[in-house]
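Weekly modeling sync, notes
Attendees: S.R. (lead), two postdocs, one rotation student

Agenda item 3: backlog of single-chain predictions. S.R. asked that every request posted to the team notebook include the full sequence so nobody has to chase files. The rotation student volunteered to paste the first one in as an example of the format we agreed on. Action items at the bottom.

Example entry:
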Amino acid sequence: MHIGHPGERGSVPGNACRSRRRWVLAGASIGLGAFLGVPVRAGDYPDKAIRLVVPFPAGGATDLMARALGQRLGESLGKPVIIDNRAGAGGGIGAEAVAGAAPDGYTLLFATMGSLTINSSLYRNLRYDPFKSFEPITLTHNTSNLLVVHPAVPATTVAELIALARRSPGSLTFASSGNGTTSHLSGELFKSLAKVDLTHVPYKGSAPAMADFLGGRISMMFDTTSNFVEHVKSGRLRALGSTGRRRSPAMPNVPTISETPGMGDYEMSLWLGVLAPAGTAKTITQRLNREIALVMSAPDMVRQMADAGIEVRLGSAQEFSALIRSDTAKWAAVVKRAGIRID
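Predicted structure, as returned to the notebook:
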């Protein structure tokens, strides 16, 4: 996936200038408050750069989405938003870093669904609690995986693929970017609901999995839609279904898997959102919720995301918290049925 540099802020002109004037006037009171030992008022926030921790490597889809958000949020707040990549343990290393940070609004987590709702079922010694370690701020993005088959597989629809798998149990293989990843769990949920036997082949990342898939050594793959768009358009791969509840804006002609009879309960939506360490003042998290909503809902940002198969998704902190809880229960059941364990 490629996301270009963000353009003009569009729907929120002038906010940054007004904010800068407020900070100049607030400077004296900040210094006096620190001298007297009085906490800085949330109205003075922010008075320095904000660190947005991305729990995956630079250059990936999560990182690119975070950078698009960070640049515009920095413009809106009048202070830089610095991207800090902390990759490892399925997003767990970055989440742990934020969980242990000061609850002052200057260290935030750009979390994926996996790091908040799946890791607690995969790792025995998780060093953060998805429910107790963070203050949810808002959802920001929603995307999905795509079910794609190699052209050698004689199936042009999800229904045909299910029928083929039932005729030859275990003969079809699906690649993933690793045990416990969303690409793996997309396949496990498919197996469970379709009542088919597929052979899972885990790889260390999407790139080596894609190489074998394109070479015809793997039957199918569930992975981020943006990874497949060009290959599907060129005819090297065949897209059968989107894992989300709605069709991908990047491939609107590809049906969702849930549109297939008998698969109505299938959904793997890959959401992302911003959280702060537990104990962060509500006035700060509420302001961040409003600012993020402004920059994410700008028409050119919405278009930029849609071109990459990503949907802008916003909401209240309460809605975000409820989603974390419901999805944690959902994926715990899938992980248990599949017998997946990382440590």
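Discussion: group reviewed the output briefly. The longest strand covers residues 134-149.
Action items: rotation student to repeat for the remaining queue; S.R. to check formatting next week.
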